[in-house]
Amino acid sequence: MHKNGNITSYRYELRERILRKAMFLFKQRGVKNVKMDDISQALGISKRTLYETYDNKEQLLLEGVKMDNEQRRQELDDFINEKPRNEIEIMVKFVRMQMAELKDINPLFFRELSRYKPIVAYLDQCKEAQTSHTINFIRKGVEHGYFKSSLNYEIVLEMGEAVMNHVMENKIYERFPMREIFYNYVSVLMRGYCTDKGIVELQKLF
Q1: Burial environment of residue 125 by CB neighbours within 10 A (0 to 12, 13 to 18, 19 or more)
Q2: Which residues contact 64 (CB under 8 A, 6 or more apart)?
Q3: pLDDT over threshold 70, residue 49
Q4: What is the pLDDT of residue 2?
Q5: Which residues contact 137 (CB under 8 A, 6 or more apart)?
Q6: Cα distance between residue 142 and residue 150, in whole Å
Q7: Pairing state of beta strands 3-4 and 7-8?
């Protein structure tokens, strides 16, 4: 085995295997319904090995959420860097990524994240950075003629968050799949802030 500092490559691989399996189970069943025993059994490792790697379920969940965010960011960055892309192409790619992820996620997963303060703090930190990034992205889309210049996009983003909070608080996902809710919401939203030029490009891709 090759060592990196004091941790062998086996340990790195084990940590990643645990994270991936745990996040799969959390998303499939909801966080509350998954015990550390379930994770160790699904991986075929001892509970002792699991606790030697992660102290508790909260730590495991936080690391898994961070891993997911990093993978999404990397996938989108790879798409953008592959060749020149306009803002509509990038937006549609992001929506497709979200749609694919929502396909197999139990809505309980999203509801239960709010019970863990470290995860809420991490997500709030991500939101602050993401909002700034999104506003800059939209400004470029306005400059290139794809997005309307007449809208206040800070208000648009706040309204978007309010809509998704309403969906979760009122358990609308019990009547409609999350993927369908998201698709209908973003379809209306995107057409609302796209210019005629943006809509033409949107119709080619989405």
Answers
A1: exposed
A2: 19, 22, 23, 26
A3: yes
A4: 41
A5: 87, 90
A6: 9
A7: antiparallel
Say what the pLDDT of residue 104 is: 85
d(CA 190, CA 199): 8
Nearest to 157 by CA among 178, 132, 181, 180: 132
Mark out the alpha helices in the chain (DSSP H runs): 9-29, 36-43, 47-53, 57-82, 87-102, 107-113, 117-143, 153-169, 178-193, 196-205
Does pTM top 0.85 for this prediction?
Answer: yes
Length of the chain measured in residues: 206
Task: For residue 185, give the nearest of 147, 152, 156 by alpha carbon.
Answer: 156
CB contact at 8 A, 8 and 2: yes
Q: Coil, helix or strand for 149?
A: coil
Which residue's entry shows tokens 């968050």?
Answer: 161
For residue 161 the two structure tokens come to 């968050």
**Is 80 exceeded by the pLDDT of residue 46?**
yes
Query: 10 Å Cβ neighbour count for 43?
Result: 17
CA distances from 117 to 33, 61, 62, 149 (A): 19, 12, 10, 38
Roughly what angle, to the nearest 10 degrees, separates helices 196-205 and 87-102? 50
pLDDT at 6: 52
Residues 51-75 have a mean pLDDT of: 95
Helix H or strand E encompassing 4: strand 3-4
| Cα(78)–Cα(107) distance, integer angstroms | 28
